[in-house]
Amino acid sequence: MNLRLVVENFMKYGVLICIRCHDYRRKDILLSTLLYALVPCHLFIAHLLELGAAQHAASALGRMKRSTDSNPQEKDPVQASRSFQATWYTIAWAHGVNATFCLLVTTYVVYYHINHPLIGTICQIHAIIVWLKNCSYAFTNRDLRHAYLNPSSASTLPDIYSQCPYPRNVTISNLAYFWWAPTLVYQPVYPRSPSIRWLFVVKRVAECLGLGMFIWLASAQYAAPVLRNSLDKMATLNIASIIERLMKLSTISLVIWLAGFFAVFQSILNALAEIMRFGDREFYTDWWNSPSVGNYWRTWNKPVYHFMRRHIYSPLVGRGFSSGFASTMVFVFSGLLHELLVGIPTHNILGVAFIGMMVQLPMIYFTAPLEKMRGINGRVIGNCIFWISFCLVGQPLAALMYFFAWQAKYGSVSRLEKA
């Protein structure tokens, strides 16, 4: 986007930025605040569930020790395993109901009662994050409980876990720290920085505010006119014009996405990590140099990647499933979350986000050999394929589809059809 395009935009549309033109309602603010306030209730229930499981595990361990002391020749690991499995099934069911109920309530309220897409998206993001954290909290404490009841397997735990052994980690303060920590994978202990650098926090917050302002200006002045001018082309299925609009939208959508990426992964997460004294700051690596589509998905969002690998991919592979099947399940799960994240706030479940994630699988398999080729040519070709698919197909097409669906339901397209 050069200076000529900026001047052309102002000559054609004038100043489109309007502070008072946002269609948010007081009800949207009140409901989003209420949804956020309900999250600690669900986290407290998760704490109570793990507290009950920890007390049951302590009682089971005591009975095992007393049985061993009274009869050293008699050890029944099968009974201990059955007790552990029975407890885990009950706790897992209760955790699933608690976490899913929190997500379902938010999804219902956002879809039917919150009109503003941005407010709905923020609520939905927070609900999904808390749902993932609840799952990780339950799965990790299950593993810790198993190690607690089977001391021979405790040696496989990371050394840092010894600073807060199970069940001493099952506290409100420990769970509250995990709620705010910039990670989706629970650990009883995390590497911590020695102090908080408040000047660093101020800089990151200033970056976030500046980028947020830039995203708002770019969306209102550049992206919105292109999207509105695409509606009649979408309604008449003018393929050539739709492709032209996709290419025109690709530039501004990429700029907005990059600004949003920097604001979230560089500014917000680093500021939050500094305040929480969270030691692991690798939220992304150089995804822009990805020699394949698969490398991009492994590097652009490290918190989600670690969750998927820790709680979906590795358990499936460990149970004998192939890596291809495990990867497919990861993208199916991710596709469902993407559809919840985009379709619910826009009040249109189109399946575009889900299909977009499924399309990544053949692209990953197609570009994977390029990453392993000797020399630089294969990596360059793979990087070009990634950028073309990312810029021209992914972001702009999804934006056009959901914007058209929104306008068809609430805006100019629906009024045109009624007329």
Structural write-up:
The chain has helices spanning about 5-15, 25-70, 75-115, 115-150, 170-180, 200-230, 230-235, 240-275, 295-300, 300-320, 325-345, 350-370, 375-410, 410-419. It is mostly helical and about 425 residues long. Helix 11 (about 325-345) runs antiparallel to helix 12 (about 350-370) and helix 13 crosses helix 14 (about 410-419). The longest helix is centred in the first third of the chain and has 45 residues, at about 25-70. The chain starts with a helix and ends with a helix.
> What gross morphology would you assign?
globular
Cα-to-Cα separation, first versus last residue: 38 Å
Largest sheet: none
In terms of quaternary structure, the protein is single chain
Using only CA atoms, what is the Rg? 25 Å
Structural class: mainly alpha
SSE order, as H and E? HHHHHHHHHHHHHH
- The helix content is over 70%
Average pLDDT, to the nearest integer?
Answer: 85
SSE arrangement:
Layout: H1 3-13, H2 26-70, H3 77-113, H4 117-149, H5 172-180, H6 198-229, H7 231-235, H8 239-275, H9 293-299, H10 302-318, H11 323-343, H12 352-372, H13 377-410, H14 412-418
Helix pairs in contact: 2-3, 2-4, 3-4, 4-11, 6-8, 8-13, 10-11, 11-12, 12-13, 13-14
Keywords:
419 residues; mainly alpha; 14 helices
In short:
With 419 residues, this protein is an all-alpha fold. The protein contains 14 helices and no strands. It has helices spanning 3-13, 26-70, 77-113, 117-149, 172-180, 198-229, 231-235, 239-275, 293-299, 302-318, 323-343, 352-372, 377-410, 412-418.
